[in-house]
Structures are given as structure tokens and as C-alpha cells.
């Protein structure tokens, strides 16, 4: 069980953002977090990464309370890619990906052969070996996002948290990245925030819906991405239908 | 190898600094002077060498603290002489002069007061650490401290006021072995900043990612900020606030280090910068011995403009 969230409440600057959230996430596969703006999705993800201390409750990762873990030990188990991460100007793809080895590197010593091999594997996994020496800021949006994903892969954690990884990508790049994320979900537990409900329906093994800091629903996509839980989550009506091949399509009813 | 050019430049400037002055020494005379501290080399050993060492230590300190503050605050303008650390240290030093206390204690006390004030002013109850707030409020702190310093100088006698004004421009005049000893005493503080390259580099990726990579961001930022403030204050105590060194050394060092925050490059750049300015101070007007700080400003402004243009182009 990668995550057991128990009665989790979080306050930011004195304002409650999550209220008594309680759920378990099963191992492996892709979990999508959905919800309107301000529903607490990013706060939930940051809490799961151990970046926010709970006001009450706890976040257990593989049975261990992450609040009690040393930051370095935690970073060897859980990787997180924040929303709209920006690389410093001129940083090459390989240099960026190498940053993912930070929790494994000894203080003040350079990367060893194992670190370099992990960076090579991460670059290979995202198909960026040929662009490894290019500055990140010279890449297209899709390539750039793959470089960031390679950074979290180089961290070699079995749990990866991604905050809106498909943001600002055009449809071909979204499709390409979804394929990559599906591959990742076969060997790791991936938790990501998504806004496109059809992509969530087609990509995720389970979906978690939040509204105003409270858990509305959690379960397989066909159970959560249904008109009733979606209305509870977003406050508007949705049409959920299936294409002839059985794949779901989810759209706001008003469109 | 990346820093070899900077090291060679610094060594060349050091040799030039030992040779420059009212009496210029050709290379054979300089070698002879260095090998005879008690005889022909007394001027070099008693005046020029300590002056060079004090300038290099102070320049290294300014360069390092500049890079650390600029990186911690994610702002190339956020050097200690812009966010008030230097000015409050200088105020502390002038206050110490005014009350007859040791200048070093005044400068260090000022540095500590500056970092405490910045931490207090910048602590946002809702958003946590806000680098923009630190820079803007630091600017206000700098103006406030400069006004306080002027007020103290106006209340001093003519000779003390003149001395304080020269010192406030940043001067190595009168730097001797006592100052070198003081510099050596505070030099260990440079070490943690020198070793902070990886931390600074990861902090540039943003707080959340740095923490997700296992860094104790709050602790590291507070610790490095405190040490950088003490180093800036220590440099001020050695030779007064040398304009532009802290501001320019970080970006120039970055350019040398391929865009990465490099403490080694910033330290070497700062030391080279002050040494060059001091050579110019003695070469241009050997009789007047104008404050070295005037020349750091004269060189620093165009160097900074060229560096920023070069960085923007690349």
C-alpha cells in the first residue's frame, strides 16, 4: 500500500485547505486527482510528498509516517514534480536530469558511476538521449516536460507524484506524454493531478475527487467519472458516454 | 580547469599589486624584495603584501556573500549592498567609531542585526518566505541605515568624519598585518559558503522541488543567509563597503561557470575585482591614494552591464 492517508487536515497560513481526508491508495498504476481550482489538489499532493506538515492526521507511505522520515530518506522513496517547474537558463537536459540524483549523492562528492547510469536510464526512458546536451530552455514544451519527468525518474523512487504534468502541452504532446506515463504506471505508483477528465478516464487506474478540501469520491474511473460524483465534485452537470470501442468520453453537459 | 583562467588572472593581479605604487618594482626587483623581508623588501612585506591579502580576503567575502544572497533570493540584484546588509554593517562600524568601540564588533553586530531585521520583515504569515519582500524591504533597510550613518557622521568631529567618509567609500589604505590577522580569523566562515554550490544549484529549481530532492530548505536558507551576512559584515569590517563587488562577482562568476551558481568562481572574481581596483587606485593616483572603493564602482558598473548583456545574449 503506497499511501494510507488518515484523517488528514492541513492549514496554509491559518486557513484550512484539507479537512479530514481519509483514503488508501493501492500499489502500482496511475491515480488521478481531480477537482476544481482551489479544491486542495496541490495541497494533497504536497502533503503526500511530505512537503507540508499535517495539522491533524497522518500520511503513511508503505506503512511509515512520512512526517517522521528524514528528508533524504523520504526523497529516495517519493519523487515529486511541482507544477510549472522552470529550469535555470542554460541548464542542459543531462544536467537537469542529474539533479534527480541529489538524494543518492554523498555530500560534496561528485556523481559516481551508479548515478551516471541512473541518469542514462532516465534519459533513455523518456527518449531524450539525443538531446541530452541541449539547454532545457531551447526545447519544445513536450520535450521539456519529458526532461522534467526524466529528473524524477533519475531519483529512482517507486512512487512519483506529478502536479498537472499535461499543462500547457498541445494535444500531440499530451498524447505522447500520456503514453510515457502509462509505461511508468506499469512499474511504479504514479499519482498525478489532471484537469482533462477524458484523459483521466483513459489513463488512470483509479481517480480521487476533491471538493473544497474534502474527499468526494475515490475508485476506478468508471465509478468516479460518472455524472453524480462529478456534479458533487465540480458543481456542474457532466455527460459521460463511451465511444464504439468502449473508451469513455467525459464532457460538461453545458458545452 | 574552468577556474584556471580566473586563478591565473588573480595571480597576475596579485603580482601587479605588489609591484604597483609610488615606486614601481620591475619583476627582478619584486622577486628580490619578496626574498628579503627585512632589507630591500620591507616596503613590500610591511605595506603592499598585507594590503593585497586584506583586499583579496574582503573581495572573496563580498563575492561569496553576493552570490549566496542573489541565489537564495532568486534575484541578481539581491546582493548584500542592495538589501541592506552592507549598509547596516557599515552603520554598526561607524557607530562603533563614534562611541569608541571596536569597529569589527560594530560591523558584525550590524550584519547580525540586518539579517535578523530581514528575516523578521520578510516572514509573511500566509505565504511563508517571500524573496521579493526581502529585496524590497532590504532596500528600505539600506536607505534607513545609510541615513543613520550620515546622521552619526554629521555629529562627529571633522577629522573623525573625514576618516569615516573615506572608510565608507571602501579603502585599503592603512591595511597592515593586524588586518590580515583579523581576515584570517574570519576566513573560516567562507568555507561553508564555498561548499554550498550544490545546495544553491538545487534551490534554483524552486523550493518544492529542492525539498522533494531531500534538502532541508528552510534550515539551509536560514543558515546560509546568516553566514553570508556575517561574511559580508566581516568584509565590511576589513575595508569598508566596497561598491559593486558583491553585486557583480556573482553574475561574472556564473558566466565563467557556464551559468551555474559557482561559489569558487564568485570568490575568485570578488578577490580579483578588489585587487584590480586597488592596483588602479595606486597606479592612477599614487600620491592621492584615493579609496579603492571608488575604483570598484568605476570598474564594477561597466563590467556588470557587459556581463548582463552577455548573459542575455547567451
Automatic annotation (TrEMBL), chain A:
CDD domains: ABC_Iron-Siderophores_B12_Hemin (cd03214)
Residues covered by the ABC transporter domain: 3-237
GO biological process, one term: iron ion transport
GO MF annotation terms: ATP binding; ATP hydrolysis activity
Membrane topology label: Peripheral membrane protein
Domain of life: Bacteria
GO CC term (a single one): plasma membrane
Keywords: ATP-binding, Cell membrane, Ion transport, Iron, Iron transport, Membrane, Nucleotide-binding, Transport
Gene3D superfamilies recorded: P-loop containing nucleotide triphosphate hydrolases
Subcellular location: Cell membrane
Pfam families reported in the protein's UniProt record: ABC_tran (PF00005)
Main location as per UniProt: membrane
Similarity annotation: Belongs to the ABC transporter superfamily.
Name of the molecule in the record: ATP-binding cassette domain-containing protein
Organism in which the protein naturally occurs: Paracoccus aestuariivivens
TrEMBL record, chain B:
GO cellular component, one term: plasma membrane
Topology in membrane: Multi-pass membrane protein
Record-level Gene Ontology MF annotations: transmembrane transporter activity
Major localisation: membrane
Keyword Membrane: yes
Membrane-spanning segments: 49-69, 105-122, 134-154, 222-244, 264-281, 288-308
GO biological process, one term: siderophore-iron import into cell
Pfam family, one: FecCD
Protein name per Swiss-Prot or TrEMBL: Iron chelate uptake ABC transporter family permease subunit
Localization annotation: Cell membrane
Similarity-based family: Belongs to the binding-protein-dependent transport system permease family. FecCD subfamily.
Family matches, as Gene3D superfamilies: ABC transporter involved in vitamin B12 uptake, BtuC
Keywords carried by this UniProt record: Cell membrane, Membrane, Transmembrane, Transmembrane helix, Transport
Protein's UniProt keywords contain DNA damage: no
Amino acid at each position: 500500500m503506497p499511501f494510507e492517508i488518515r484523517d488528514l487536515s492541513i492549514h496554509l497560513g491559518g486557513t484550512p485547505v484539507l479537512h479530514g481526508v481519509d483514503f488508501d491508495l493501492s500499489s502500482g498504476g496511475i491515480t488521478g486527482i481531480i477537482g476544481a481550482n482551489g479544491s486542495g489538489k496541490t495541497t494533497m499532493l504536497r502533503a503526500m510528498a511530505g512537503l507540508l506538515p499535517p495539522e491533524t492526521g497522518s500520511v503513511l507511505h508503505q506503512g511509515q509516517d512520512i512526517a517522521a522520515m528524514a528528508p533524504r530518506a523520504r526523497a529516495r522513496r517519493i519523487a515529486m514534480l511541482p507544477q510549472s517547474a522552470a529550469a535555470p537558463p542554460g541548464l542542459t537536459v543531462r544536467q537537469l536530469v542529474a539533479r534527480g540524483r541529489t538524494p543518492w549523492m554523498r555530500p560534496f562528492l561528485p556523481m559516481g558511476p551508479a548515478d551516471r547510469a541512473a541518469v542514462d536510464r532516465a534519459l533513455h526512458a523518456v527518449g531524450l538521449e539525443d538531446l541530452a546536451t541541449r539547454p532545457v530552455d531551447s526545447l519544445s514544451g513536450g520535450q521539456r516536460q519529458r526532461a522534467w519527468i526524466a529528473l524524477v525518474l533519475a531519483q529512482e523512487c517507486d512512487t512519483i507524484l506529478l502536479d498537472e504534468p499535461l499543462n500547457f502541452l498541445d494535444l500531440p504532446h499530451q498524447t505522447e506524454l500520456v503514453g510515457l506515463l502509462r509505461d511508468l504506471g506499469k512499474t511504479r505508483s504514479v499519482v498525478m493531478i489532471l484537469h482533462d477528465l477524458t484523459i483521466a478516464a483513459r489513463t488512470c487506474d483509479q481517480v480521487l475527487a476533491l471538493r473544497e478540501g474534502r474527499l468526494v469520491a475515490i475508485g476506478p474511473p468508471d465509478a468516479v467519472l460518472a455524472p453524480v460524483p462529478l456534479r458533487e465534485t465540480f458543481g456542474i452537470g457532466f455527460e459521460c458516454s463511451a465511444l464504439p470501442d468502449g473508451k469513455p468520453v467525459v464532457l460538461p453537459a453545458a458545452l | 580547469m574552468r577556474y584556471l583562467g580566473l586563478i591565473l588572472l588573480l595571480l597576475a593581479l596579485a603580482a601587479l599589486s605588489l609591484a604597483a605604487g609610488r615606486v614601481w618594482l620591475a619583476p627582478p626587483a619584486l622577486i628580490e624584495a619578496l626574498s628579503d623581508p627585512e632589507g630591500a623588501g620591507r616596503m613590500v612585506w610591511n605595506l603592499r603584501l598585507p594590503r593585497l591579502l586584506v583586499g583579496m580576503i574582503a573581495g572573496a567575502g563580498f563575492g561569496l556573500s553576493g552570490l549566496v544572497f542573489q541565489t537564495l533570493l532568486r534575484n541578481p540584484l539581491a546582493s548584500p549592498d542592495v538589501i541592506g546588509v552592507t549598509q547596516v554593517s557599515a552603520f554598526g562600524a561607524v557607530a562603533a567609531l563614534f562611541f569608541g568601540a571596536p569597529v569589527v564588533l560594530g560591523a558584525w553586530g550590524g550584519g547580525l542585526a540586518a539579517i535578523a531585521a530581514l528575516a523578521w520583515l520578510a516572514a509573511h504569515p500566509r505565504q511563508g518566505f517571500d524573496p521579493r519582500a526581502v529585496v524590497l524591504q532590504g532596500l528600505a533597510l539600506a536607505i534607513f541605515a545609510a541615513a543613520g550613518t550620515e546622521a552619526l557622521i554629521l555629529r562627529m568631529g571633522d577629522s573623525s568624519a573625514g576618516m569615516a567618509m573615506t572608510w565608507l567609500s571602501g579603502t585599503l589604505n592603512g591595511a597592515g598585518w593586524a588586518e590580515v590577522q583579523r581576515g584570517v580569523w574570519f576566513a573560516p566562515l567562507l568555507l561553508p559558503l564555498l561548499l554550498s554550490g550544490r545546495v544553491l544549484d538545487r534551490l534554483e529549481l524552486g523550493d518544492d522541488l529542492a525539498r522533494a530532492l531531500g534538502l532541508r530548505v528552510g534550515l539551509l536558507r536560514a543558515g546560509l543567509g546568516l553566514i553570508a551576512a556575517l561574511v559580508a559584515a566581516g568584509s565590511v569590517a576589513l575595508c569598508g563597503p566596497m561598491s559593486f563587488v558583491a553585486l557583480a562577482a556573482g553574475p561574472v562568476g556564473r558566466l565563467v561557470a557556464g551559468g551555474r551558481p559557482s561559489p569558487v568562481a564568485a570568490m575568485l572574481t570578488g578577490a580579483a575585482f578588489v585587487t584590480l581596483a586597488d592596483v588602479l587606485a595606486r597606479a592612477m593616483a599614487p600620491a592621492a591614494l584615493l579609496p579603492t572603493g571608488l575604483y570598484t564602482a568605476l570598474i564594477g558598473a561597466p563590467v556588470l552591464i557587459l556581463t548582463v548583456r552577455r548573459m542575455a545574449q547567451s
